[in-house]
Specification:
alpha+beta, Pnp Oxidase, Chain A, 4 helices, about 20% helix
Length: about 150
């Protein structure tokens, strides 16, 4: 697929996250992981994003305790897996990731953070803690550290 090009500059990550697409959010903390779909993710500036994660989601305490999270833009070919990841909570089914049919991989330095195969964009962000914003608006901010 010649149309997919790597983002080589962290200051260019705003480009793919400026379109309002459904995004997959990967989180990890204390040996626990999750991947969920989120529609409220967007660029804040050239190398930072925001993502809304409700307090009822399994991913929420993982992102609160963890240092990193990943945002990924899935391709149409994995739409059924995205629907599953977005409609089944790990609160209800601890085997959600295994049952989703999605394939996962990791990158060096972030071996505990599951990334989803079949996406056009993968970016790892360091969480920028903003306790008031997180509690009041369920909004998390991240600074790009790996593409």
């Amino acid at each position: 697929m010649n149309c997919i090009k790597p983002i080589t500059n962290l200051s260019d990550i705003y480009r793919p996250f400026n379109i309002g697409a459904t995004t997959l959010v990967s989180t990890s903390s204390d040996g626990k992981t999750d991947v969920m779909a989120a529609a409220w993710a967007c660029a804040l500036n050239y190398d930072m994003v925001s993502v809304v994660i409700d307090s009822t989601h399994y991913s929420r305490p993982l992102i609160e305790r963890g240092k990193y999270f990943a945002l990924q833009l899935p391709l149409a070919q994995i739409a059924d897996k995205v629907m599953y990841l977005g409609s089944v909570s790990k609160n209800d089914d601890p085997e959600k990731l295994e049952k989703s049919g999605a394939e996962f991989f990791t990158v060096p330095g972030f071996e505990d953070l599951p990334l989803v195969k079949g996406c056009g964009v993968w970016v790892i962000f360091e969480r920028v803690p903003e306790q008031h914003v997180e509690k009041a608006y369920d909004l998390f901010i991240g600074k790009a550290v790996r593409v």
